[in-house]
Amino acid sequence: MFNNSWEFSSTSPVNAVLMQPSVLEKIDQWRQKGFLSQAEACGILLGERKGFKGKEQYLNITDITLPYNTDIRKPTAYIRNTEGHQAYLDELHKQSKGRIQYLGEWHSHPQNVATPSSIDYREWHKTCLNFPNLPLVFYIAGVTEDWMGIQADQSIYLPKTL
Ligand SMILES: [Zn+2]
């Protein structure tokens, strides 16, 4: 069983993250069960920001984008392109009248227990520079265990362990 809700301590800019079951089902199809015989998958996390900024805020991940043919995908690396992902986000954003927004990034790892690489931390840092003061979710799908964290500016927040 994989988690689909996470709570954070009071020092975190976000109190909780929810992931809709349909999102987890999509991610499940891209887990690297074949380890290095499969390429990493990547996409963006989409959903709603609820509550007040910096206070009782929670994020509801309602959808994701899936790997697009312009993404560069290798067994232990990936480069997500904007093509496809951006168009999907724009469409949902428009349809929902702005309710559905960009919430962060996801990708898969050829590991049982997903752990971020130094490249992941570097890339997330770059991504966050484009969203000052806005907490983003970063999610890594492992084969048996996923990793998730929130990053706002320079700080990473990890969920409370259950
Ligand atoms: Zn990674």
Automatic annotation (TrEMBL):
Keywords: Hydrolase, Metal-binding, Metalloprotease, Protease, Zinc. Pfam families: Prok-JAB. InterPro entries: JAB_dom_prok. Gene3D superfamilies: Cytidine Deaminase, domain 2. The keyword tRNA processing does not apply. Residues 37-144 form the JAB domain. One of its GO terms (molecular function) is metallopeptidase activity. Signal peptide: none annotated. One of its GO terms (biological process) is proteolysis. It comes from the Bacteria. This is Integrative and conjugative element protein, VC0181 family. It comes from Psychrobacter pacificensis.
